């Protein structure tokens, strides 16, 4: 119970810090960087739901991110729909696309599934890059509007957009928390641990994998739509495989299969990237060895390693209490026997 309350205390502290950041930091660049970090976190949570909790590695999520972004741009600029209607439709369309792809992709397993989704992601990139009349091709897609007002709420300033993205991040974390600690979440974990055993328990693995995949695509498309409304310019590079591996890096560094992993990994890598800007393209000479060492010594990521360390400490304390209790019982029993022998003598 104490661990539960302590964990929630830390969550409350982090939430307060995130809410107070625009008041504490006057530099607009740092505000922009944090807003982008929150968008990446939402996308990584989508990847984490499927890869971390269901056990299937999807390499098409950068493509779904781009589909959500481009769909919002096309619906607002070319079709002329109101922003929030286009926002909802972009997430719905990408989720339906994920449903169609998942129905086929989930008939494969393990590395075959990863290869299939990698191909899907690359096809999405090619469609965006080559379909000039719809997406603008290599010239990019411009003119995407900022989020429109909702009653008295205006989202035209960077601070307002920061809080809008933060609101969606809090909503995604809340949904992830409720899902992971529900029966559905435990079903996903059972599939991750042993799909054959889950089948013997009567779990419909295909249905649950498909639901997890579509929800993860929805989260990623939500991040893409937020990205389009925040940057307001799109290029085909956002669908390229390098973005997918950025998502994987954030997740692996933070901790795959943990709720805190996307936040920890994204913030850490974003901060390090900014500190190493002066190295330009040579940054990977530092990132490569660091990531290799992290995967070797912390295969479950920073958050995952910390959780396991806490679990080991709790287990050690439990064993110590049991040993002390056993020793006390033995001492009491020995004292009782000694007293009985003295009385009989």
UniProtKB/TrEMBL annotation:
TM region(s), chain numbering: 83-105, 112-128, 162-180, 210-235, 247-272, 284-307
Principal location: membrane
Alphabetized GO MF terms: branched-chain amino acid transmembrane transporter activity
A Pfam family of this chain: BPD_transp_2
UniProt KW Cell inner membrane keyword: no
Topology relative to the membrane: Multi-pass membrane protein
Cell membrane found in the keyword field: yes
Coiled-coil regions listed in the entry: 309-336
One cellular component (GO) term of this entry: plasma membrane
Keywords: Cell membrane, Coiled coil, Membrane, Transmembrane, Transmembrane helix
Protein name, UniProt field: Branched-chain amino acid ABC transporter (Permease)
Cell compartment(s), UniProt: Cell membrane
């Amino acid at each position: 119970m104490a661990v539960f309350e302590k964990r929630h205390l830390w969550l409350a502290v982090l939430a307060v810090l995130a809410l107070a950041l625009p008041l504490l930091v006057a530099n607009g660049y740092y505000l922009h960087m944090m807003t982008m970090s929150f968008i990446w976190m939402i996308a990584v949570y989508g990847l984490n739901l499927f890869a971390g909790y269901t056990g299937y590695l999807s390499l098409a999520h950068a493509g779904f991110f781009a589909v959500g972004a481009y769909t919002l741009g096309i619906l607002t600029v070319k079709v002329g729909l109101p922003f929030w209607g286009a926002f909802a439709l972009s997430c719905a369309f990408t989720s339906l696309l994920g449903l169609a792809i998942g129905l086929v992709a989930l008939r494969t397993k393990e590395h075959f599934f990863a290869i299939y989704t990698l191909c899907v992601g690359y096809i999405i990139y090619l469609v965006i890059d080559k379909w000039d009349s719809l997406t603008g091709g290599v010239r990019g897609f411009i003119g995407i509007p900022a989020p429109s007002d909702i009653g008295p709420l205006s989202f035209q300033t960077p601070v307002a957009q920061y809080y809008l993205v933060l609101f969606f991040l809090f909503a995604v974390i809340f949904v992830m928390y409720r899902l992971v600690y529900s029966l559905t979440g435990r079903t996903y974990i059972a599939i991750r641990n042993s799909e054959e055993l889950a089948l013997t328990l009567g779990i419909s693995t295909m249905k649950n994998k498909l639901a997890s995949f579509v929800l993860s695509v929805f989260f990623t498309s939500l991040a893409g739509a937020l990205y389009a409304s925040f940057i307001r310019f799109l290029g085909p590079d956002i669908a390229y495989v390098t973005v997918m591996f950025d998502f994987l890096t954030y997740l692996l560094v933070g901790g795959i299969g943990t709720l805190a992993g996307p936040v920890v990994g994204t913030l850490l890598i974003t901060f390090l990237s900014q500190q190493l800007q002066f190295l330009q393209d040579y940054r990977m000479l530092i990132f490569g060895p660091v990531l290799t060492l992290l995967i070797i010594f912390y295969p479950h990521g920073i958050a995952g390693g910390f959780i396991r360390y806490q679990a080991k400490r709790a287990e050690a304390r439990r064993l110590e209490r049991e040993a002390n209790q056993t020793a006390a019982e033995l001492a009491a029993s020995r004292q009782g026997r000694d007293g009985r022998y003295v009385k009989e003598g």
